[in-house]
Specification:
Elements lengths: L29 E3 L5 E3 L6 E8 L3 E2 L3 E2 L4 E2 L7 E9 L5 E8 L3 E2 L3 E2 L4 E2 L7 E9 L6 E9 L3 E2 L3 E2 L4 E2 L7 E10 L13 E7 L4 H12 L12 E6 L35 H10 L20 H7 L3 E9 L3 H5 L10 H11 L4 E5 L25 H9 L3 E2 L8 E2 L1 E3 L2 H6 L9 E3 L31 H12 L6 E7 L2 H7 L2 H25 L5 E6 L3 E2 L2 E2 L20 E2 L4 E2 L3 E6 L3 H7 L2 E3 L3 E5 L2 H10 L1
Parallel strand pairs: 18-26, 18-27, 19-34, 20-21, 20-26, 21-25, 24-25
Antiparallel strand pairs: 1-2, 3-4, 3-5, 3-7, 6-17, 7-11, 8-9, 8-10, 8-12, 12-16, 13-14, 13-15, 13-17, 19-32, 22-23, 27-32, 28-31, 29-30, 33-34
Helix pairs in contact: 1-10, 2-12, 8-10, 9-10
Length: 613
């Protein structure tokens, strides 16, 4: 957060490589080349891991997939390094380091130490090459962080990275292996803003059903035409403790052998949010903590460490699992009041929007009586009354002054926030209790938009526009998570019409975000990711069959079959546009025989951190 006057901010997103989509029934290892013959698509399915020795600290944990090993800006030198390749029997690695006042060391390989330990001698440079029968099929890329210089550009295949004879230490390193011909990784530090949009409970058929109803055909949403189109695994580590960790894994080799298997051991929204926000898998119900209930650093905290603004929006309670997972830390998602108080009183977040208003019911009507439990989503009665009075906040920007929250509640206040001057810190709690629309009265089984909507609350689209108008006060950039939270609720209750209502509002919010990038920023500086956290309801076109919902024309309900009232463990769609979209493709080293290439939800945070530096 930065206190600043509004702006003419330039925003960012980058050029991304177009991903070939693999149709159902075609192996992910097969694509069609220009000659019409099937050719093998090369994917690095092994693991390149690396470990560094830091002065006065010792050996760090093994890292992989372009994660940083070492430090930046802490004046701590790298003294030694080990690199190895596993799960790829025809591929090895060899490497050579330059040590200050000593010179180049002999080449070593496959996990052997290069450098020194405890001798106060810095590494100045490194060269890395692949070995083995498959070395000609891949490139090994590496990037080092040099004292007083920052991140050097990526180099590959034995090229020198670092300096020689200039007394500049290496502080950090990132390494990754890519198939020959794959674009080089994006150089670190090229990203300014990230907008992560999560349609909670949404799988491929939820998108397709909405497309069919609103447009009469598939592929009509803005994000469906993003250059990066992948799938994403969502599994968690099950219950608290480690005994059941392997039960939830997504195994593409076995998952399609029985229709019912996708029902087994799905993640909940708390574990999914924590994985996306922190890069670490955890147990169901965990908010921002690992399996030992220790706090994890989330993406919002990463951005705040670089003086960037942060915010979360949802169409359900703001202390619900997904928004809380990007801001708070708690052993259980059920501790709503504790989560709300941490988000409001302790975090450095600049913007929070979501339901939970204690004074209103689910129809947006004032309650005649208010129980203590009605305040749980906002942190209790005292917290609420302090928000209303305008005297609740903390020192969010580290300048020694208290940054109080500006509370807005009315639909008009949300609409006004979309344009013009905006406060630097806003909490928006619409005049409704649990969620904007889905829990309103009326026939829940009715077709979309036939039951009168709550007219006193903003749409998710309006909330998104207002949030962007607040966060772009910060010239350094921002992170924003936007959740369509009630798609999941529709899936749990198998409500066809209300599912389409909720997904339509989410789609409009994506359009609003893309319009903002085009108008107020550009696609070279802002990364937009659109995905879900899991699928809910096991929606298909035919009961008991994994197939698509059936198109019956625009404005006509598609043929939809719900096969569950719970979450499923299936892969879900993932779309990205902007700087680093191609990097996200590089993480998609999973291969599914039906869905094709996929990444894991924990790799979202890893990729964003690499881009953020």
């Amino acid at each position: 957060m930065k206190k600043t006057i509004k702006r003419g901010i330039v925003m960012l997103t980058a050029v991304a490589m177009l991903l070939f989509q693999v149709p159902a029934g075609v192996s992910a290892e097969e694509i069609i080349d220009t000659s019409g013959e099937k050719a093998e698509e090369l994917v690095f399915e092994g693991n390149c891991s690396y470990q560094t020795q830091i002065q006065n600290i010792g050996w760090q944990d093994w890292k992989s997939k372009e994660s940083m090993s070492g430090t930046t800006g802490k004046s701590l030198r790298l003294e030694g390094i080990k690199i190895k390749i596993s799960e790829s029997p025809n591929l090895g690695v060899t490497y050579q380091t330059q040590i200050e006042n000593v010179g180049w060391q002999d080449w070593v390989s496959d996990g052997t130490v290069s450098g020194t330990e405890g001798q106060s001698l810095r590494l100045e440079a490194i060269r890395i090459k692949l070995t083995g029968a498959d070395a000609k099929k891949y490139d090994i890329y590496y990037q080092v962080h040099v004292q007083n210089t920052g991140w050097m550009n990526w180099v590959k295949n034995g090229e020198l990275s670092g300096t020689v004879g200039e007394s500049f230490r290496l502080e950090g390193i990132k390494i990754m292996v890519l198939p020959k011909g794959t674009p080089a990784p994006v150089n670190t530090g090229s990203i300014k803003n990230v907008i992560l949009m999560i349609s909670d409970g949404c799988g491929a058929n939820e998108i397709l059903a909405t497309d069919y109803y609103t447009d009469g055909k598939a592929g009509t949403q803005t994000y469906e035409n993003f250059p990066t189109k992948l799938n994403m695994s969502t599994y968690s580590h099950g219950g608290l403790g480690t005994a059941d960790d392997l039960l939830s894994l997504y195994d593409p080799k076995t998952i399609w052998s029985d229709f019912a298997l996708l029902n087994n051991n799905p993640t909940d929204s708390a574990a999914a949010a924590t994985a996306m926000a922190s890069g670490t898998k955890t147990y169901d119900a965990a908010i921002g903590v690992d399996q030992d209930e220790q706090k994890l650093v989330n993406i919002c905290e990463d951005f705040e460490a670089q003086n960037k603004a942060t915010g979360v929006i949802t169409s359900v309670e703001f202390s619900h699992a997904t928004p809380a997972g990007f801001v708070a830390h708690n052993s259980s998602r059920q501790n709503y009041s504790e989560l709300a108080n941490e988000m409001i009183k302790d975090s450095k977040t600049d913007l929070i929007m979501g339901a939970g208003n204690p004074l209103y019911d689910n129809n947006g009507k004032l309650k005649t009586t208010i129980a203590d439990s009605d305040y749980k989503y906002v942190g209790g009665q005292d917290t609420w009354e302090s928000l209303v009075a305008g005297n609740l906040g903390n020192d969010a920007d580290g300048d020694g002054d208290i940054d109080n929250w500006n509370l807005i509640q009315s639909k008009q206040a949300f609409e006004t926030l979309q344009t013009g001057a905006a406060p630097d810190r806003v909490i928006g709690i619409p005049e409704v209790f649990e969620t904007l629309q889905i829990n309103r009265d009326g026939d829940g089984k009715a077709e979309p938009f036939t039951v009168a909507m709550n007219e006193n609350v903003p749409t998710l689209e309006v909330m998104s526009k207002g949030a962007l108008n607040v966060l772009d006060n910060d010239p350094d950039g921002f992170f924003l998570m936007i959740e369509g939270g009630a798609i999941d609720w529709a899936g749990h209750s198998n409500l066809d019409g209300r599912l389409i209502e909720e997904e339509t509002d989410f789609n409009h919010s994506v359009d609003a975000v893309c319009d903002w990038v085009n108008t107020n920023s550009n696609w070279d500086e802002t990364l937009v990711i659109v995905t879900g956290d899991h699928e809910t309801g096991y929606l298909t076109g035919t009961t008991g069959v994994y197939d698509d919902v059936v198109n019956n024309g625009k404005g006509v309900m598609p043929t939809m079959a719900w096969n569950s009232g719970n979450h499923t463990n299936q892969l879900i769609p993932f779309f990205a546009k902007g700087p680093g979209a191609a990097l996200l493709e590089n993480y998609a080293n999973g291969s599914d025989p039906v869905k094709g290439a996929y990444l894991d939800n924990s790799e979202i945070a890893l990729a964003i951190r690499n881009l953020l530096n």
